[in-house]
Design a protein that fits this description.
By secondary structure, the protein is an all-alpha fold. The protein has helices at residues 9-40, 47-65, 69-90, 100-122, 148-170, 172-182, 184-189, 194-216, 226-241, 246-266, 274-285; strands at 138-140, 145-147. The protein contains eleven helices and two strands. The termini are far apart.
Amino acid sequence: MFELIGIPPQALFGQLLLGLINGAFYAVLSLGLALIFGLLNVINFTHGAQYMLGAYIAWLGMTYAGINYWVSLLVAPLVAGAFGVVMERLFLRWLYQLDHLYGLLLTFGLALIIEGVFRNIYGISGQSYPIPPILTGGHNLGFMFLPNYRAWVVAASLIICLATWLVIEKTKLGSYLRAGTENPTLVQAFGINVPRMITLTYGFGVALAALAGVLAAPIYQVKPTMGADMIIVVFAVVVIGGMGSIMGSVVTGFILGILEGLTKVFYPEASNTVIFVVMAVVLLIKPAGLFGRAN
């Protein structure tokens, strides 16, 4: 069948794998964005810089403290999440009742500052981060070679996304979070500290971005611009899935990653724009997004 369309099966499945990898990062990053917007009503343009921050925390920990990859999966999200908590307390808490534009402009400015700091210290060249020894190599599936680390990234991303969705949608904590954003006065009447809950929610969203950065470090080079290269696409994913829709962001992230990979096989010239074309079509047909609810 593949010979009829003139495409070697190894090339097709190889690009599908790359698309699935990209989709995994799109899903985790858009999950954090959707979580912050859906529960805090803030468009967090700093998300790409926080993704980069997670990768750099892992690289710095390995380089200067000998911290291995598995420890970095815990340390980097905690450090970046703490940074997010400080940022929310200092800046974002004053914007919740204002128009979305104010949050967008503030977080965009903060993203430029964070990226600029790392660019001045480390330059624009990338740093390599080794794959952990237990995940090196791969398996020959006959029709393609599957690297172990890439299989791990896809599996880990699915687990992260599913666990986050279950917490937000199926637990008492998630119901408190949703209720706190819709009617904070009523929730506070039950003795729940809503401002603290909002702060921790933002910190968790930042931690998700940092966790994606650690997962990405062995695949992509760790560099100051890695977040800027990703954030525009991730915003498109969130818009297509529906602003604030957690499940929409996850499903759309994986689907669009695969679509991008297939486009590289059949029409490579359009691979960089296919997601934005889909976004334009979806917004014309359903402005709230595929999984979003109209106001």
